[in-house]
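Raw record, unedited: Alpha-D-phosphohexomutase alpha/beta/alpha domain-containing protein
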Amino acid sequence: MTTININELMESSGVQFGTSGVRGLVKDMTDHVCFTYVSAFLQYLAKQQSIQKGSRIGIAGDLRSSTPRIINAAAAACVAMGYEPINYGFIPSPAIALYGIEYDMPTIMVTGSHIPDDRNGIKFNTAQGEILKPDEQGIRSQNITVEPTLFTDANGLVHQDYLSTESNDAELNYIKRFTDFLPTDCLINKSIGLYEHSSVSRDCFKRILE
């Protein structure tokens, strides 16, 4: 077993805390680094008595090329620490956060937001919403014990199948929030342009507008 201090990991990896989570270059966000950060988040929640063994942890991501790998690392950390990762697929950050709040479940969102594709990030949400500065300090103070045999010599996970079958519950819940708010047929006979680009919100928005 190897013990890793999160403050020291920040300095050695170059993956730093930003807004409600960590961000860094994809080449620096190895499976080992991502696994350790997620483990620290979960260990912090456990010490706060916010979760217990077997608790569900929601995971989602954006459309970056590195996101599926990082999602798998997050799920691996959940499994290693005795929690159940739930795969909510590729949906917007507010969708997974909202679902966690409504169903009393911590969630993890793998997203780089607006930064280039050679970077990515991991957002942490408690069951009350995005982590705050006191939560960040709590996560950074954790010492994490990692099993080296889970990883290759290149710091990748040996197995890439930690994630469960995808559930669309969080996406449908998010869409329903909009459709319940908007009056029926309020956009009838309107022509609306939807610029999709690389946004993970594009499919949700299309369904809402339809």
